[in-house]
Write a structure and sequence with these properties.
It is found in: Endoplasmic reticulum membrane; Mitochondrion outer membrane. This protein is mainly alpha-helical and about 120 residues long. It has three helices and two strands. The protein is rod-shaped and about 85 Å long.
């Protein structure tokens, strides 16, 4: 094994490709050791609550599914919540207006219209 001389390390501008290739393992180990040394001081990644859509509705269930028969629709228009903030979920109570104002989102309700023949 050849020893890398200190004067070669400081003379980066005159290194040839073969010398750079010999330095790569050493530089890789130094980079890894540096990362492992500072890693405990880096900020921890937290689960972003902002990335969750449903914050409180039926959280005990693995999947929220609401089934409504079309025949049961009483009025001409029915609005269903898509922002997951409605206190009357699955029916929209216009909570999306506050949600959109706070977050800059553009979510709105699902509107089902009954055709009158």
């Amino acid at each position: 094994l050849q020893v890398i001389h200190l004067y070669k390390i400081y003379a980066f501008n005159v290194c040839v490709v073969s010398e750079w290739l010999r330095l790569l393992p050493l530089l890789g180990i130094l980079a890894l050791l540096g990362y492992l040394t500072i890693r405990p001081f880096l900020p921890k990644k937290k689960k972003q609550r902002d990335s969750l859509i449903n914050l409180k509705i039926q959280k005990e269930n693995p999947k929220v599914v609401n089934e409504i028969d079309i025949e049961d629709l009483n009025s001409a228009n029915v609005c269903y919540c898509r922002c997951w903030r409605s206190k009357t979920f699955p029916v929209c109570d216009k909570s999306h207006l506050k949600h959109n104002e706070l977050t800059g989102d553009n979510v709105g309700p699902l509107i089902l219209k009954k055709k009158i023949l």
